[in-house]
Design goal:
Elements (H helix, E strand, L loop, with lengths): L3 E4 L3 H14 L2 E6 L7 H5 L2 E4 L12 H11 L3 E3 L9 H9 L3 E2 L4 H8 L1 H10 L7 E2 L12 E5 L9 E3 L5 H16 L4 E5 L5 E9 L5 E13 L2 E7 L6 H17 L4 E9 L5 E7 L6 H8 L3 H9 L13 E8 L1 E2 L5 E2 L2 E2 L2 E3 L5 E4 L6 E2 L6 E9 L2 H13 L2 E3 L5 H9 L1 H4 L7 H4 L2 H4 L6 H22 L18 E7 L2 E10 L2 E4 L5 E6 L3 E6 L2 E10 L2 E6 L2 E7 L14 E3 L4 E6 L6 E2 L4 E7 L2 E6 L4 E6 L6 E2 L4 E5 L4
Parallel strand pairs: 1-2, 1-4, 2-3, 4-5
Antiparallel strand pairs: 6-9, 7-8, 7-9, 10-11, 10-13, 11-12, 12-15, 13-14, 15-22, 16-17, 18-21, 19-23, 20-22, 24-25, 24-31, 25-26, 27-28, 28-29, 29-30, 30-31, 32-39, 33-35, 33-38, 34-37, 35-36, 37-39
Helix pairs in contact: 4-5, 6-8, 11-12
Length: about 650
């Protein structure tokens, strides 16, 4: 029996595992890097151990430090979560060799499925269909194109290139090999036939040590950005019972082919004609496992623990209802999903949905790790009802301090094509992410939000007043000059000028508006006969306003701006915090529009800062390896004469 479990991971998945451990009466141990010292998963552990010597992703890859933490705390089992070392066969062997219980599949099964090429060979021998596959140097017939170049050793879209014509293959292979080597330490790639308008459908499998292997139904994971899933659901709208049985049988055969034990996911590509083929097997718990839990009623983490303890699997329950999960990221969908860092000032999501979160109000999102904030999951008897519940919960959530993909997710869930089941992997190619990701609050809504912020600010000032705090702000016996404030928002500057007179509120440019109440955190306005409540939060010079019209983040414009804050003309700044990977120019360099000047790296991504126009570099203010904040001046271009 497991008595104390160490989770060799961080963030949301660690909190998720801890939740089940508390229910099972198992003590918990967290390990953490320096940037994660104040994160919720550390606070929720019974014991926590700092992993010394580093403050980046590599910290969680130190097998020696993780095993030392288990020994120091007396942990008798290790759960790897997902990512990091979760599919590292050497780590699994080291855990077992240390006399600890490994809550995961056998090391040999991990090794077999760690190479996509080897996995294809093994499952094909077991009768599982695979796509036509070639080595990078093979003679590929022209009619096979388009094809995908894929990394054998990893996933997440890294080391992957879509190639439409034979002439482009060599360059794509070279680029994919380089990315695969950097990401996984293995530059092996292969070429696979690309299926047009495919769906990404996976089967959750489970196996115990008594020879039982079962399918826990499918998950649809087709809506992706950069080949990474952002919307998952179960059941798939494209899978009927007959296809479910066929795919489930193939997944079970794949698991049996490698002597699998524990939780695993067999991923398939599903063509429009209903034919499917094996892609890969993930030898771990998946990010999207909550949708399976909601449609089966099973706790998959609890099942992992019981299998590790030698118990038999229970009977597979029937599927019930529909579940949808979305991944909430700190990223800007309007800027090609550029990751965002900073402090999560407020994080409140309605309790009508399940939230598996790595953050809470006050958490800091650093540039060291993946920018996922939470998985938000809904269940309902029907797919349409699940989508509606989830969209409403996201739209009414209060998420302040960071740009997120929340509005993109809301629009996907409300999209007619999505609701009709059109969820192939090209969804975000047909629907511009920049359009889907724009704020739900338009320019008119932002103007009303600015007024609400002004009224809340004046209410707060009156509440602090030592004399006559109940007197309305700006009140005069005889109406005089209006009160004036200005805010900057997404849609530009909003000048607010208003007076509070005997007959009510008068606002320049807002005829037909009535003030019903105003407090420091809540303002109720009636516009054109519609009453709405505006919830307001003030932080430094930022105002956050949530209403049925959407969310706006507004910056109060100071009456007397500080000239020291102005940037030099021609300054190009860092769009995100990170480290300088390369500096490709020097002062005096002549550059053309679009030419790379500096390359930054953050959150597993590279971002190039390019020249906005032809010109000459006047200054370079950073060096390779330097850490920079968002807004740091990197390069100054000479102003044209």
């Amino acid at each position: 029996m497991i008595t104390k479990l160490l989770v060799a991971n961080r963030g949301e998945i660690t909190r998720r595992i801890f939740r089940t451990c508390r229910e099972l009466g198992i003590a918990t141990v967290a390990v953490h890097s320096d940037p994660d010292a104040d994160m919720p998963f550390v606070a929720e552990a019974d014991e926590a151990v700092r992993l010394p010597g580093a403050s980046s992703t590599d910290t969680y890859l130190r097998v020696d430090l993780i095993l030392a933490a288990a020994k120091a705390t007396g942990a008798d089992a290790v759960h790897p979560g997902y990512g990091f070392l979760s599919e590292n066969a050497d780590f699994a062997r080291a855990v077992v060799d240390a006399g600890l219980t490994w809550v995961g599949p056998p090391p040999d099964a991990i090794a077999a499925m760690g190479s996509k090429l080897e996995a294809k060979r093994l499952v094909s021998a077991g009768g599982v269909p695979i796509l036509p596959t070639w080595g990078p140097g093979d003679d590929i017939p022209g009619e096979a194109f388009p094809v995908l170049v894929k990394a054998s050793a990893g996933g997440g879209g890294r080391g992957m290139r879509l190639v439409s014509a034979p002439a482009d293959l060599a360059a794509a292979v070279e680029a994919a090999q380089g990315e695969a080597q950097r990401s996984f330490g293995d530059g092996t790639v292969f070429v696979e036939r690309y299926v047009q308008r495919p769906r990404h459908v996976e089967i959750q499998v489970f196996a115990d040590t008594h020879g039982n292997v079962v399918s826990l139904y499918e998950r649809e994971c087709s809506i992706q950005r950069r080949h990474q899933k952002i919307v998952e659901e179960s059941p798939s709208p494209a899978v009927d019972e007959a296809l479910r049985q066929r795919m489930g049988a193939a997944a079970v055969a794949a698991a049996k082919a490698v002597g699998y034990v524990g939780a695993g996911t067999v991923e398939f590509v599903l063509a429009p004609d209903g034919e499917f083929a094996f892609l890969e097997m993930n030898t771990r718990l998946q990010v999207e496992h909550p949708v399976t839990e909601l449609v089966t009623g099973l706790d998959l983490v609890a099942l992992q623990v019981r299998v590790a303890e030698g118990e038999r699997l229970p009977e597979v329950p029937p599927m019930r209802g529909h579940a949808i999960e979305v991944r909430l990221y700190a990223e800007n969908a309007e800027r090609n999903f550029l990751p965002v860092t900073g402090t999560v000032e407020q994080f409140q999501i309605p309790d009508s949905v399940r939230v598996d979160s790595g953050v809470e109000s006050g958490s800091v999102v650093s540039h060291y790790y993946d920018p996922m904030l939470a998985k938000v999951v809904s269940w309902a008897p029907t797919r349409a009802a699940a989508a509606r519940t989830l969209a409403t919960a996201l739209a009414t959530a209060r998420i302040h301090g960071l740009v997120t993909n929340r509005d993109l997710l809301v629009r996907i869930l409300r999209d007619e094509e999505f609701l009709a089941g059109g969820t192939d992997t090209g969804f975000l190619e047909r629907h511009d992410p920049a359009d889907l990701g724009r704020p739900l609050a338009d320019a008119g809504a932002e103007a009303v939000h600015a007024l609400a912020a002004a009224l809340a600010g004046q209410a707060a000032a009156r509440a602090r007043a030592a004399v006559w705090p109940d007197l309305p702000s700006g009140w005069r016996n005889n109406p005089s000059q209006p009160q004036q404030l200005a805010f900057e928002g997404r849609y530009g500057r909003h000048d607010v000028a208003y007076t509070l007179e005997r007959d009510g509120l008068h606002v320049d440019g807002h005829d037909g508006l009535r003030l019903l109440s105003a407090g420091p955190t809540e303002v109720t306005l009636e516009t054109d006969g519609v009453r709405r409540v505006f919830r307001v939060r003030h932080s430094a010079d930022r105002w956050h306003v949530d209403s049925p019209l959407g969310y706006s983040a507004l910056t109060e414009v100071p009456r007397f701006p500080d000239p020291a804050h102005a940037l030099d003309a021609g300054s190009l700044t860092a769009p995100m915090p990170g480290s300088v990977l390369r500096v490709e120019v020097a002062p005096g360099t002549r550059v053309r529009a679009g030419q790379q000047l500096v390359v930054l790296e953050a959150m597993k991504m590279q971002h190039a800062v390019t020249a906005p126009a032809d010109g000459t570099v006047a200054e370079v203010r950073v060096d390779t390896g330097q850490q920079v904040d968002a807004g740091t001046v990197l390069v100054v271009m000479e102003e044209p004469a």
